[in-house]
Design goal:
- Chain B: InterPro entries: Rhodanese-like_dom, Rossmann-like_a/b/a_fold, TilS/TtcA_N, tRNA_thiolation_TtcA_Ctu1, TtuA-like_LIM_N.
- The complex is a heterodimer of chains A (about 60) and B (about 300).
- Chain A is mainly β and about 60 residues long.
- In chain A, about 10% of the residues lie in helices and about 40% in strands.
- Classes of the chains: A mainly beta (about 60), B alpha/beta (about 300).
- At the A-B interface, strand 4 and strand 5 of A face helix 9 and helix 10 of B.
């Protein structure tokens, strides 16, 4: 699958299938502070991701 | 995973509520939370004139949208802080939303109207840009609200903001800050307008879901001056705890408001005066904003 880190100008390819929770663990990403979007739709941590999916990961933390 | 309300496929899970929602039911939950917060804390009513402070980020855009949709009498206020392209892009986002939804918007520009430059001021005064920015914003929100007859100022502070602020205030034992922290900052002087935080029980993630599901344009990029801010570190630490123990952030904040806050009192009785230059409320002879303006005029 293609994984895009929104706002970070970064894109990688990750082997599928696996669910969102496993992907987050593999990438060391906190599920509480990120939103996962599969092919344009928001998905839950149990959603299975396949090789032809495009997954966007958005950080929700803002500060200042 | 199924929506706990309608049993359709869920798209959002909220572990701290042990809940999962489809898009439609999440928006129902979100609106209910906002309305409950407004009513429970007596923030404002339908006939109040509410000044909503917007930055173009997800939280304030979500607040503006939900209050306007719920029929509150809202006017938004945006301050262009002169932070290069970041400020220009955020102003564009806010203006587009106001135009598209036919909503009133007040725009202020601190460089053009007051000659203020946050970067120069922070270097000259050896203060962090966030501290200078906060002083300017708080002054202008209150001035615009007072001068234009608004009864309340609403900001997009969320559960993560409030929990991070609380953690910071506890780590530093800021007694007077702890005594004041809450979803409502009441009017303590005729020229100090009441401030409220209707999103204080909603997380940043929930605000992000709200803007994404409603296809609301927002500025995702962060203010360049906020990189390395301590508030972000506190939020990350709290999210680590939240992931392993869902509900931590809400228990921390709500527990403080219900059980902890009463033990903190304002350290001293602060006398409120009117600024000798602009007439607005201050604890000194001249308010911080007028002093910043003078420093700015001196350094050029």
């Amino acid at each position: 699958m293609t994984v895009i880190f929104v706002g970070k100008n970064n894109q990688i390819t990750i082997k599928a299938p696996k669910n969102v929770e496993k992907l987050a663990k593999e990438l060391n990403i906190n599920l509480e502070s990120h939103v996962f979007i599969k092919n344009g739709e928001i998905v839950t941590p149990d959603e299975i991701l396949q090789d032809d999916d495009v997954v966007e990961i958005i950080s929700v933390v803002s500060g200042g | 995973m199924k929506c706990i309300r309608c049993k359709k496929k869920a798209v959002i899970t909220l572990k701290r509520h042990n809940a999962a929602f489809c898009a439609e039911c999440f928006l129902h939950y979100y609106r209910n939370q906002v309305l409950k917060n407004i009513q429970k804390n007596k923030m404002f009513k339908k006939d109040d004139r509410v000044l909503v402070v917007v930055s173009g980020g997800k939280d304030s855009m979500a607040l503006w949208d939900v209050l306007a949709k719920e029929g509150y009498n809202v006017t938004a206020m945006y301050i262009n802080l002169g932070i290069g392209e970041y400020s220009n892009r955020s102003q564009e986002v806010v203006e587009n939303f106001a135009k598209k939804n036919n909503l009133p918007l007040i725009v202020k520009n601190i460089k053009e109207e007051f000659g203020l430059d946050i970067y120069k001021l922070s270097k000259t005064l050896k203060r962090s840009p966030c501290s200078v920015c906060g002083t300017i914003k708080r002054y202008l929100f209150n001035k615009v609200a007072y001068d234009n007859g608004f009864s309340v100022i609403a900001t997009g502070h969320n559960l993560d903001d409030e929990a991070a602020t609380l953690l910071g205030n506890i780590l530093n034992w800021g007694e007077s800050y702890l005594a004041r922290q809450g979803p409502v900052l009441p009017q303590t002087h005729p020229k100090l307008i009441k401030k409220v935080k209707p999103l204080y029980t909603l997380t940043e993630k929930e605000n992000m879901y709200y803007v994404l599901l409603n296809k609301i344009e927002f500025l995702h990029e962060e203010c360049p001056y906020s990189i390395g801010a301590r508030s972000i570190l506190y939020k990350e630490l709290l999210n680590e705890l939240e992931e392993k123990s869902p509900g931590t952030k809400q228990r921390f904040l709500i527990g403080f408001l219900e059980k902890g806050k009463k033990h903190f009192k304002e350290v001293e009785n602060i006398e409120l005066k009117e600024c000798k230059t602009c007439g607005h409320v201050t604890t000194r002879e001249e308010c911080s904003f007028c002093r910043l303006t003078k420093v700015s005029n001196t350094v050029g």
